[in-house]
Amino acid sequence: GTPRSDRRQNAMYTNAPFHQTGGNQLHDSTRCVFRHPGKQRYYSTQVTPDLLGGWLLTITWGSEVSRHGRLTNIHMDSREHAMRQMAQIATQRAKRGYVISDVVSQ
Known about the structure:
This protein is an alpha+beta fold. It has two helices and five strands. It has helices at about 5-10, 80-95; strands spanning about 30-35, 40-50, 55-65, 70-75, 100-105. It has a five-stranded antiparallel β-sheet, covered by helices on one side. A hairpin with a 5-residue loop joins strand 2 and strand 3 (about 55-65). The two termini are about 25 Å apart.
């Protein structure tokens, strides 16, 4: 499932349904959640600043049934680089049958 720290972070954001985010939903987003309807799996990406002036791309994934999952943080030099990586992940997830279920801009 979603790690405890990610659940706490979710409470800090206002969720915007995918159909209300407009055509360029990934360009300005800082968090994006993907779900696979047939496999009951999720994949989430989030871009946040770190304390040293860089940026973190946090990726979480797992099963919605067992609530088990994993989390990884990747350090990025710039927000733009992190957002490009986030867009690449979105493309990969779409190819594997995932759909965007939530996009949060900040």
